[in-house]
Amino acid sequence: MHLRTLGTLVLGIVTVHAFRDTSPFFFYSTSEFLVTSSQVATASTVLSSIKDRLASCLSDTYVIVSQPGVNAVDYSNRSSAPHLRKALSGDNPAIRSSYSVPDVLGEVDPSALMETIEGKCGAGVLNVDASTGSFDIIDDMKPRVIRLDFPALPTGPRRVNQLSENDAFIASLIDLLPSTKYTVLYTTTPLSTEHQASLPDSATYQMDQTPFSVPHAELKRDVFQGRQNGDNFTLVDGPLFEKYQFFTPGIFMGLIVGILLLSILYVGISGVSSLQVSYAAFDRENGPAAQKGKAQ
Known about the structure:
It is a single chain. By secondary structure, this protein is α/β, with parallel strands linked by helices. 38% of the residues lie in helices and 17% in strands. It is built from 9 helices and 9 strands. A 7-stranded mixed β-sheet has the order 2-4-1-8-3-7-5. The protein starts with a helix and ends with a helix. Residues 1-18, 200-208 and 214-236 have low confidence and may be disordered.
């Protein structure tokens, strides 16, 4: 009995440490891909499955993101990656297919994905400097692979803010694409031992919890500030109505109820004002008492 309990405990410890050495993989596209999300998969399985889908060359632009030093817990915060959350949860109507694996055993090589797209689709490569927020202007409709490498996230409260800024950078980059047919491949690498030791013990990831299990409506657009350098293009603030959502469902329902109440008030006032009573009806001689006396 004790040996069985000890074996179960050892198995649980090994499982916990195994999932501490995993990292998520995300994929979403405006094209229709037949993909099915899973909770756990090896890097080789994910890479093979994605390569088969990419061979169809359905998109004009492929954005390959590399984010080292993260795990699924980093994306469970609603404010960490709102645009990515919106794309994977189905809130973005432009996204027609998505695929996510919260726990990938091993590392999905972004270079292998890039080589597949180059070889199968004949796409050119455009590297983006994430540290300065600048990149070359995209002014043609040729198939293209955009490689975006982010640095490892810092520890502490700044970690969520940095991940949110990276997410805003990706969203701004997508907005500047000349074609609406794009695919985003978001690769990550697990946390190092030093990063795992610095994270709080409360940041525990449960097997039945997915990073984007709760849809989140983003009301405010994050803005990433960059620098302009030569012929490079720097991200700037977008239009006001793209950054903020002024007409929310709550405001819409309030307007509907207000219009209904005003219409009821108008009908009541119109009905009262349409009543016509002769002034003679209030005279004593012609009033109800006088009519009763005449009847007697």
